[in-house]
Amino acid sequence: MNPILEHMSGLHTLTDDVIAMDILINAKSAVRNYAMAVTESATPEIKQILMKQLDEAIDSHEKISNYMMQNGLYHPYHISEQIQLDLKNIQTAMDIQS
Fold first, then answer.
1. Distance of alpha carbon 20 from alpha carbon 34, whole angstroms
2. Rounded to whole angstroms, how far apart are CA atoms 86 and 93?
3. For residue range 75-87, what is the model confidence (pLDDT) as tens digits?
4. Could you tell me where the DSSP H helices lie in 1-98?
5. Using an 8 Å Cβ cutoff, are 65 and 25 in contact?
6. How far apart are CA 94 and CA 88, in angstroms?
7. Nearest-angstrom CA–CA distance, 56 and 83
8. Maximum CA pair distance of the chain?
9. How high is the pLDDT of residue 80?
10. pLDDT number for residue 12
11. What's the DSSP call for residue 20?
């Protein structure tokens, strides 16, 4: 969609929300996968490499979460606010299909 039309219709916010949430979900998945890989590693050298990657994944997750919270895209400590944001995004997505 044209960026001007997206901005005028308010859909740019949904796009930002969706992109940011997708990045956050991927960061969470990376943390989980590295943690599992650490516990399955066969050698101390591999375990050390994976632990370094895990630390970096945790740092990335924190940065992404902080960015989203600062920009009103994520409310992990205020569930009612997060639910309202999710409902708004659902309604906007449904309006796009109409």
1. 21
2. 10
3. 999 999 999 988 8
4. 3-9, 11-40, 44-70, 79-97
5. no
6. 10
7. 30
8. 56
9. 95
10. 59
11. H
Q: How confident is the model at residue 16 (pLDDT cuts 50, 70, 90)?
A: confident
| Tokens 């599992």, located at residue | 36
Question: Which residue carries 């995004």 as its tokens?
Answer: 89
**In sequence order, what are the residues at sequence separation of 6 or more whose Cβ sits closer than 8 angstroms to the Cβ of residue 98?**
none
Residue 36 is predicted with a pLDDT of: 97
Whether the CB-CB separation of 93 and 14 falls below 8 Å is answered with yes
Amino acid at 84: Q
Read off the amino acid at residue 56: E
Residues 6+ apart with CB under 8 A from 75: 69, 81, 82, 85
Output the pLDDT for position 3: 63
